[in-house]
Amino acid sequence: MLFSNITILNENMEAEKNRYVQIDGDRISYIGDRQPEGAYGRVINGKGKLLMSGFFNAHAHSPMTLMRGYGENMALSDWLNKKIFPFEDMLSPDAVYWGTMLAMAESLRFGIVSTSDMYYFCEDMARAVIDCGAKNNISRSVVNPAGEDPESLESFREMKELYRDFHNAEEGRIKVDMSLHAEYTSDMGTATALAEHAVSLGDVRMQVHVSETLSEHEECIARHGMTPAAYLEKAGIFDVPTVAAHCVWSTDDDLDIFREKGVTVATNPVSNMKLASGICNVQRVIDRGVDLAIGTDGVASNNSLNFIEEIKTMLIGCKAVTRDPAAMSVTDALKAATAGGAKAQGRYDSGVLKEGCRADLIVIDISGANMHPVHSFINNLVYSSSGSDIAMTMVDGKVLYENGQYTTIDIEKTISQVERATGEILARL
Description:
By secondary structure, this protein is α/β, with parallel strands linked by helices. The protein is built from 14 helices and 17 strands. Strands 1, 2, 3, 4, 5, 14, 15, 16 and 17 form a nine-stranded mixed beta sheet that branches. It has an eight-stranded parallel beta sheet with strand order 6-7-8-9-10-11-12-13. Helix 4 links the parallel strand 8 and strand 9. The termini are far apart. The mean pLDDT is 97.
């Protein structure tokens, strides 16, 4: 495949016009200002289009598409205990498969090429991701509020089996991470056992919720005399590469722990604001030298997977919480959405438009009225574009979405199956 005369966003997040980009197999084989020689199959006219890295969603719960709009304008505890947990108790493998497939369709529509997921029924999630051609870091979340023997937990067993059966499946499209749900949903013995197991594997990453709400943060200090980040470090959770989701209330000392241990903060601005959990000061995260990525969280607390909206909200939220209009550059925001997320997932050959890297790319229509005039191209991209401007999403060089059409997903069947599964659950509640 060859893109001709297209604007690109290079690895430094700089716009370059009238470029030729060749894709061979799953890789970017050429970027230049002259048309390469040889055969390259399909040629795409890039006039009025932008080619850039796809987005990497660093924290999500994909099957929660089934709960989109189910429980609104509620306090977090009521939302969870009265709506979400009762619904989740009724989930089935079939419902999770179709909920995940719907999330993948929406993700591809909005330019997300890879997602870090934390949930259960993970085998069914993996099947959906495999079937649609996307990428995913799937983790079976471990909880143990009763402090039982970790090895006796069903979640611990399923986590091990998931790693055995799916880690690096589909030529690495599927990666299996370990996951401790959070400090407050388990005990130190569970966290330590999970950390030791992760270290023993030698080729694994970790996902965990950290300091999402003020009450979570303060209650951990009351229980243990330390913050959630300090507690998790003590347990050894950060002894493997870790994505710490939310971190709204993390302290400077917590961020220093993250920097020293190589932890990536995955901020979830829309979900955190919608649930009134607060706003993560992402400028402070960057200033402390901590890696940053962006997540959507579950659709139940976000309502969409519109990643451009997520980037814009992160930027505006940072300016609001710091009361500094210069806080957080669009360059840093775009890097967090692409290379930052790819690094967090251990996908080091993705996340940038660069020769030799994987062709996990998106095409954005930049010809619309909302993208003109152009005083700053990347400012327009972040503040003026919309998820609806995304015209193509490709993963490993394969086009999975283009101009409203999916090549691997029967979208009408997916929507029908999701409506059926959701209706069956609601009828039982």
